[in-house]
Amino acid sequence: MRELKDMGTLLMGFLPWLLFLFFSGHSLQSLERISWVCLVASLTFGFFELRSGFMLQWGTLLFFAACILLVNFLQVSWVATQMDLLANLSLASLVWITLLCGEPFALQYARKGLPKERWNDPSLLKGCRFITLVWAVLISLSVGVSVYRRSPAPQATEQAYFGISLTIIAVGVIFTTLYKRQKRLQRENHP
Q1: What's the CA gap between 89 and 100, in Å, rounded?
Q2: CA neighbor of 183 nearest in space, from 133, 112, 131
Q3: What is the 8-class DSSP label of residue 100?
Q4: Phi, psi values for residue 153, rounded to 5°
Q5: Which of 130, 146, 156, 157 has minimal Cβ neighbours within 10 Å of its Cβ?
Q6: DSSP H helices in the chain
Q7: What are 90-141's pLDDT values in tens digits?
Q8: What is the domain partition of the chain in residue ranges?
Q9: Rounded to the nearest 5°, which phi and psi values hold at 113?
C-alpha cells in the first residue's frame, strides 16, 4: 500500500510532463491547448511543492510558462516544431541541476513525508541521490531519442517513439518504487 502512495506522489510531481506527453498531439492548436493545461496542472497539483521551493516544480512551471509565451503569444514556429526535444532537454536539465546543486528532486519529495530528524540521514541522502541519478540518465535517454528523430537515420513510427517514452517513464517509476521498498525493508530488518 505504501508503494502505491509513493508511486502516486512521484507521478504527481511529473503530472504536467505526463499530460504533455499524452496530449500534445501533432497540431499547433493541440500544443497551444496542452501548454495551458500543463501550466494550470503545475500550479494546481504542485501548489504546495512550489510554496516549499521544489526545484522540479518551479522548473516545470517556468517551462510551460515559456511554452505559452513562445508558442501561443509570440508564435515562434521553431519552438513548436522542436517541442519534444525541448521538453525532454528541459526536464533532463532540471533533474541534472537538482542533482548537481546537492538538492536531488527525490530528496525534496522524500523529506515531505519524513520527520525532520531523518532529513539528513546519510542513507536517505545517498538513496535519493541515486534515484535522482537514475532518473537523470533515463530522461537523458529521452533526449537521445529526440535527437535521433532529427537524424537522417532510418526512423521508427510515432507510436514506437511514444512507446519508448512510456517505457522510459515506466522503468523510472518501477525502479523508484522497488528501490524505496528494498531500502525500507532493509531499515526494518536492520534497525
Answers
A1: 16
A2: 131
A3: H
A4: -65, 160
A5: 157
A6: 2-13, 15-23, 28-45, 47-51, 55-67, 77-81, 83-100, 105-112, 122-149, 158-189
A7: 999 999 999 999 999 999 888 887 889 989 999 999 999 999 999 999 999 9
A8: 2-189
A9: -105, 10
